[in-house]
Amino acid sequence: MSKIGVFICHCGENIGATVDCAKVAEAAASMEGVAFATDYKYMCSDPGQTLIKNAIREHRLDGVVVGACSPRMHEPTFRKACAEAGLNPYLCEIANLREHCSWVHPKGDDTTEKAIEIVHGLVEKVRRNSPLTPIHVPITKKALVIGGGIAGIQAALDIANCGHKVILVEKEPSIGGHMSQLSETFPTLDCSQCILTPRMVEVAQHPNITLYTYAELDSLSGFIGNFEAKIRLKAKSIDESLCTGCGLCTTKCPQKKIPSEFNAGLGRRTAIYVPFPQAVPNKPVIDKEHCTHYRTGKCGVCEKVCPTHAIRFGQEDRIINEQVGAVVVTTGFNVLGTDFFPEYGYGRYADVITGLQFERLASASGPTLGEIRRPSDGKVPEKVVFIACCGSRDPAKGIPYCSKICCMYTAKHAMLYQHKVHGGESYVFYMDIRAGGKNYEEFVRRAIEEDHVNYVRGRVARIYEKEGKLIVKGVDTLLGATPVEIEADMVVLATAGVSNQGSEELAQKLHISYDPYKFFAEAHPKLRPVETNTAGIFVAGACQAPKDIPETVATASGAAAKVAALFSQPDLVREPLVAVVNRSAPPVFSTCVGCFMCQTACPYQAIEREEIKDRSGKVIKVVAKVNPGLCQGCGTCVAFCRSKSIDLQGFSNQQMFAEVEALLETTN
Amino acid sequence: MNTGFYPGCSLNGTSREYNESVRAVAAELGLKLTEIDDWNCCGATAAHSMSRELSVALPARVLALAERQGFDEVLVPCASCYNRLSVAAHELARDEELAAKVGAAVGMAYSGKVRIVNVLQYLQEHAAQLLPGKIRHNFAHRVACYYGCLLVRPHKVLGFDRLEDPQSMDGMMRAIGAEPIDWAFKTECCGAGLSVSRTDLVGKLSANILGDARDRGAEAVVVACPMCHSNLDMRRTAINKCLDEPTDIPVLYITQAIGLALGLSRKALGLQRHIVEVKLQ
Amino acid sequence: MEDKKRLSIKLAEDIGVDVSRCYQCGKCTAGCVLAPDMDIAPSFLMRLLQTGTEKADARVLGSTAIWLCLSCENCVARCPMEIDLPAIMDHLRELSRTGGRVNEKARPIVAFHKSFLDMVKHNGRTYEIGLVAEYKMRTMRLMQDVDIAPTMMAKGKLNIVPERLKDNGDKVGRIFANTIDKKD
Question: What is the CATH classification number for the domain harbouring C32?
Answer without folding.
Answer: 1.10.1060.10
